[in-house]
Amino acid sequence: MASLSRALRVAAACPRRDLGLRALTSRAGPTTEKSVPYQRTLKEAQGPSAVARGPSRPLPSTANVVVIGGGSLGCQTLYHLAKLGVSGTVLLERERLTSGTTWHTAGLLWQLRPSDVEVELLAHTRRVVSRDLEEETGLHTGWIQNGGLFIASNQQRLDEYKRLMSLGKAYGVESHVLSPAETKALYPLMNVDDLYGTLYVPQDGTMDPAGTCTALSRAAAARGAQVIENCPVSGIRVRTDDFGVRRVAAVETEHGTIQTPCVVNCAGVWAGAVGRMAGVKVPLVAMHHAYVVTERIEGIQNMPNVRDHDASVYLRLQGDALSVGGYETNPIFWEEVSDKFAFGLFDLDWDVFSPHIEGAVNRVPVLEKTGVKSTVCGPESFTPDHKPLMGEAPELRGFYLGCGFNSAGMMLGGGCGQELAHWIVHGRPEKDMYGYDIRRFHPLLTDHRRWIRERSHESYAKNYSVVFPHDEPLAGRNMRTDPLHEELLSQGCVFQERQGWERPGWFTPQGTAPVLQYDYYGAYGHQAHGDHAYGRLLGDEYTFDFPPHHNVIKKECLACRGAAAVFNMSYFGKFYLVGLDARKAADWLFSADVSRPPGSTVYTCMLNHRGGTESDLTVSRLAPSPQASALAPAFEAPLTAALSQICFPTLQLPAPTPWFLREPSHL
Length: 667
Fold this sequence. Notes:
Blueprint: H1 4-13, H2 21-24, E1 65-68, H3 72-83, E2 89-92, E3 108-109, H4 116-137, E4 148-152, H5 155-170, E5 176-178, H6 180-186, E6 197-201, E7 205-206, H7 209-222, E8 226-228, E9 233-240, E10 246-253, E11 256-259, E12 263-265, H8 271-278, E13 285-294, E14 305-308, E15 313-318, E16 321-326, H9 350-363, E17 372-382, E18 389-392, E19 399-403, H10 409-426, H11 449-461, H12 485-490, E20 493-498, E21 501-507, H13 533-540, H14 549-562, E22 574-578, H15 582-589, E23 601-607, E24 613-620, E25 639-645
Parallel strand pairs: 1-2, 1-12, 2-8, 4-14, 12-19
Antiparallel strand pairs: 3-7, 4-6, 5-6, 9-10, 10-11, 13-16, 13-17, 14-15, 15-16, 18-19, 20-21, 22-25, 23-24, 24-25
Domain FAD dependent oxidoreductase central: 426-481
GO molecular function: sarcosine dehydrogenase activity
InterPro entries: FAD-dep_OxRdtase, FAD/NAD-bd_sf, FAO_M, GCVT_N, TrmE/GcvT-like
């Protein structure tokens, strides 16, 4: 059996293939099926196609909700719809449950992420998989709690982990920052010579996709939901109501039609094809994503899973072996997605995968002489910002997305399935889920092939990068510019990207800093840009402290103050909240306590009636004065707040409804 070190030498010795467009894509179909490192899967035995035998049960003529896709998200959404009491729910799977992408997933669950929303979503997934499903069905989901270990090989990464630990404390996630010596005691086979420390989360673990989806479908069926396998969808019927609004009418299959007002697209890599049936744009791409499974390693039993972000590699405990995978800068795109693909895999490209071997051998040196038991290379779907696509499609009422999970469908499935079900039943979500809502992308971009491809590639390549608050994408830039763009650029404007627009961020005194055409980080035969002005300025912003451009803005503000300049702040949308009940209204509207002394300013969120975030803004408490000023009008009644709306566009609030009682319509 070939060892990892031998595989690395072979990859290095082989002549490099042309890394142009042909190397970037895969047009060949999947190879013959290979085993994956799970004790059981939901694959059919060799024989006639399951689809050819027809659906596993008769189709109902009507349904309240039809979920398309029997992977992690489809099963989780069906389960949570059933738990909310929704009757008449149906899941349609074209093959068998878990076919496509879920069946070969690594099944890792890391509880700590840079986003507090994701921490909550992950916590719910863990509760469902580790406790709820087994209590409801008596089936073991395959949950194994062996812990997780994040590796910090520089001080900046260790600082990020300390922030994650603080975030975890707020949400009840136990975690510990360990020294290199403590890490060695916990994981004796690990090389700790180059470590600054690690973050250990004892209650992380792994899931078995087949066991989890089986338990989810069993629990949903017990509440009246139907799971129909071997039933591919062939079309989505759409109607236009009396007001000219397009709505879902039915789901068509070769075996019958189901009348329904609601469809949930959980088709993973095939979500784009399902979207096209309904005229809905789904901005995702399919890529090869791989890991290898080693032979038996003495002493590896019961070790935690490892994520070495700086080496872009993970090590998943697989009984007495390890699964080794990661995110490379030159992933292979799967352009022509086959609708016949079910439980197949691709041949592993060792040229692409070899950096992960180097990182794994450096972290666990015993791997250098350990054999490779099997390779697992399958398709996964990825999005332009590495976040899932969720929510109702703006083009079609009743058509919901639950796809594009960037190889984290098992990990985020429970939390996102719950939120998506709540979204379908109750409307807008309770949590601030705007970061996952499909509406976060401008409609002009959701079908722009180059933008989707570039941004998805960069998000994939930077998946393990430190998440800095002032980072900006380099991919998919200069898509939308205003008439003053070139003039501002010539004056030293450093642009930021929002909704595809190049918007002014700040001005550098060091000359022009244009955003260059995306170079794919030097992959696929592209020449990397190297040192360039925009990249250099962006690199300086990679800090959790105040970035350098704050000092530039500070000097501008001081210069303006010295010149006694007066600015009209109405550009930012300023509103005044006045009256006897102003304080009560402020307490209802804002998430922070704004009852401060006059002269105080608070940065906070404005909430809707469900507690969801509508906007972020600053609230200033002003003292009454009969004299008008540049900051406030004259007034004698108690004035609680002056609001400076800092998001765009400015809020439009038609009279006579009081603005603080209306839900803004611009989001």
